[in-house]
Design brief:
The structure holds two protein chains of two kinds. By secondary structure, chain A is of the alpha+beta class. Chain A has helices spanning 6-20, 38-65, 78-101, 114-145, 150-158, 182-188, 191-211, 237-261, 296-306, 317-322, 456-466, and strands at residues 168-180, 215-220, 223-228, 268-284, 289-294, 313-315, 327-335, 344-352, 367-381, 384-385, 390-397, 401-406, 415-420, 431-439, 446-453. Chain B is of the alpha+beta class. In chain B, 43% of the residues lie in helices and 17% in strands. The chains are: A alpha+beta, B alpha+beta. Chain A binds chain B through residues 72, 75-76, 81-82, 84-85, 88-89, 91-92, 94-95, 99, 102, 104, 106-108, 110-111, and chain B through 82-83, 86, 89-90, 93, 99, 101-105, 113, 115, 117-118, 127, 157-158, 163-166, 168.
Chain lengths: 470, 174
């Protein structure tokens, strides 16, 4: 029998009691005089166990708190090795999650039981969602990217809630532009020339529109319909529309310079700006649809646009209110439209105070002619016109405008077909088109008209009458 | 070719032969024990002939050569470090070499901690208080040398031989 000191047995019991209650027991002191027997061996093993278990318990606590950087664990106890394996796996998962967070969705986890399956499913799900998002973004880029600025596309992608393709009512500013007299001009040019001229003109306009953050909703021939405020509404939609319209008119100078170099005729454009409520959304059938707008505001803008002459911008009262201060406005233009009890009191837009470089200036003044030039005119109303020509004269003239003296008053904003008297040797009676801008004076018979289409032969004759500087 | 004297490596991937043609019936796979049979008998003889240090050196250099060849002939995704590690993980699993995992990366210092579970060399060997995956150390160093052009100190800090259940390697640029 081995003699046993109760105190030693008590210290072993106390050590295990401390372990069980979550405390860290100190090593059991082995008396020097304890013989080298089974009891010494037992206490030595208990102390070795304590020295391995204590750091293990601390490491467990760290790992449970999410701190994976615990100090190295020693010993061969399987429980210690299992903890090291768990710690390693958690570190690896942290690394994998960081890679996924960095955008690498190809990361996979293997041989971690159900966790691997769940983790890999999650990654696959993320990948699928990301690809779906990319497909949607690509769709948005395709649908809108061609017709709007990068900024608007990015705003769309950043704020998917702002895009309701199903349709919604919202206030937008509409810009509608059209070339004056282009149909007549197109008939005089070769088909390839018409397309080249149009493409050249449209390229210049689209560049200005995109620079100002407009979204091109339609290009029909020479007419452009631009939205400000859809698909993405911004604070300064009206101001941007104003700057865009002025920029487009300014860009026409460059367009015509190149036209001249290519022996093409000069072209002129009228622009209308109007702010109002429209319905926007993806409009069309399942097979073919596009983001577009409908509503009375569109019709009103078209109506305003029909009152413009070349080089002119007409803005509606709602646009003027929306653009706040800074607009430089010209004459009032009363626009009558179907369904409107009162005419819309629009104004000619001449510039923007903060951007003097975009000012359009006044039209050149007409020179009084020494001898009035006899002409005949007829009012164009819609697609039909009265063939009965009325006699009149040009009493003053510039390259773009004239003062027409008729026998009776001619309605303001009416469109006219004019015929000059044929000169000797001229085969055809020279014709040109114009719009009545306003009464010229109190007489009631004199009207300021703006030429909307002037064939090259007639242009040469007007140049001779006006002189090179007018 | 195989038995010429040499003072620099003449190893080429083609030396592994055409396994399809050469082993039409048995195929390319063999038992892990057979691989270890060669590994540990070779180690035994090398230690006897040249001592532990030189034997370890031989295993490290052979592993490094293998890592370089593996990089050139097996790995395909090398665009960035994460892709490279993922490719090592994938191919080592496919070839039943081991379960490669990255535990942590310190990109600022270019150092890493990687582990290999179920390692071909050591998983399941008797406890010996030794880290014995010297060949793996060289293999990892060879992979990274080819990837980055830099030499790395690869040190095994945990091994099945030393009582751990995974082989853990610290990888620090020289």
């Amino acid at each position: 029998m081995i003699p046993v000191e109760e105190a030693l047995l008590d210290s072993i019991t106390a050590a295990f009691h401390q372990l069980r209650t979550g405390k860290v027991p100190p090593p059991i002191v082995i008396p020097d005089d304890l013989p080298d027997n089974e009891l010494r061996q037992l206490i030595t093993y208990v102390n070795r166990f304590l020295s391995e278990f204590t750091p293990f318990a601390e490491a467990m606590e760290h790992v449970a708190r999410g701190d994976l950087e615990t100090r190295g664990l020693l010993g061969r106890m399987p429980v210690v090795q299992s903890l090291k394996a768990l710690q390693s796996n958690l570190k690896h998962l942290t690394y994998k999650t960081q890679q996924i967070a960095g955008g690498d969705l190809e990361q996979k986890v293997d041989f971690m039981g159900d966790f691997s399956t769940a983790f890999n499913q999650m990654t696959q799900q993320l990948k699928d969602s990301y690809q779906e998002l990319e497909r949607r973004n690509e769709f948005i880029r395709k649908v809108f990217g061609r017709y709007t600025s990068n900024e608007v596309v990015e705003a769309l992608l950043d704020a998917p809630d702002g895009l309701k393709l199903g349709g919604e009512k919202r206030e937008v500013t509409i810009l509608m532009s059209d070339l004056r007299g282009f149909t007549a001009l197109a008939e005089r040019l070769e088909a390839t020339e018409v397309v080249s001229l149009l493409n050249h003109y449209l390229s210049a306009m689209v560049e200005v529109i995109q620079r100002n953050g407009g979204t091109i909703d339609e290009i029909i021939g020479d007419a452009i319909l631009v939205l400000f405020g859809a698909p993405v509404a911004m604070e300064n939609d009206a101001q941007r529309a104003v700057l865009c319209a002025l920029g487009m008119q300014k860009a026409m100078g460059g367009v015509n310079e190149q036209n001249l170099q290519r022996s093409w005729p000069a072209i002129e454009m009228g622009i209308a700006l109007h702010t109002g409520e429209v319905v926007v959304g993806n409009i069309g059938s399942v097979k073919r649809s596009k983001y577009g707008v409908v509503g009375r505001t569109i019709n009103t803008t078209a109506r305003i646009e029909s009152f413009t002459v070349g080089g002119q911008i007409i803005v509606s009262p709602t646009l003027i209110r929306g653009a706040s201060q800074g607009l430089i406005l010209g004459d009032e233009v009363e626009v009558h439209a179907k369904g409107m009890k009162e005419p819309l009191r629009c104004r000619q837009l001449l510039g923007y105070e903060d951007h003097p470089e975009l000012g359009l200036g006044e039209q050149m003044a007409c020179t009084t002619l020494a001898e009035p030039v006899p002409v005949q005119y007829v009012l164009l109303t819609g697609k039909h016109f009265n063939e009965q020509m009325e006699p009149a004269t040009f009493v003053a003239l510039s390259h773009r405008q004239a003062v027409l003296e008729a026998r009776s008053p001619v309605p303001v904003y009416s469109n006219l077909l004019l015929r000059l008297e044929a000169e000797t040797g001229e085969g055809e009676v020279p014709e040109l088109y114009a719009k009545v801008i306003r009464p010229f004076d109190e007489s009631g018979n004199r009207h300021l008209i703006h030429f909307t289409s002037v064939p090259p032969g007639v242009r040469a004759r007007l140049n001779r009458l006006v002189g090179p500087n007018q | 070719m195989f038995k010429e004297e040499r003072d620099r490596s003449q190893f080429e991937w083609s030396m592994l032969g055409d396994l399809k043609e050469g082993r039409p019936n048995l195929g390319p796979m063999t038992h892990v024990a057979v691989y270890r049979l060669m590994q540990y008998t070779l180690r035994d003889v090398l230690i006897r002939e040249f001592g532990v240090e030189k034997a370890d050196r031989a295993f490290f250099e052979a592993g490094k050569l293998a890592g370089q060849a593996y990089y050139k002939n097996v790995l395909t995704q090398k665009k960035d470090l994460n892709e490279f590690f993922a490719d090592i993980q994938r191919t080592m699993k496919e070839l039943n070499i081991g379960i490669f995992r990255v535990e942590s990366t310190d990109l600022e210092n270019g150092s890493f901690v990687v582990v290999v579970e179920e390692d071909l060399d050591c998983s399941g060997i008797p406890f010996c208080s030794e880290q014995i995956c010297t060949y793996d150390e060289g293999f990892i160093a060879g992979l990274l040398l080819e990837y980055s052009g830099k030499d790395y100190n690869v040190k095994e800090v945990d091994c099945w031989g030393s009582g751990a259940r995974v082989c853990r390697f610290t990888v620090i640029p020289k």
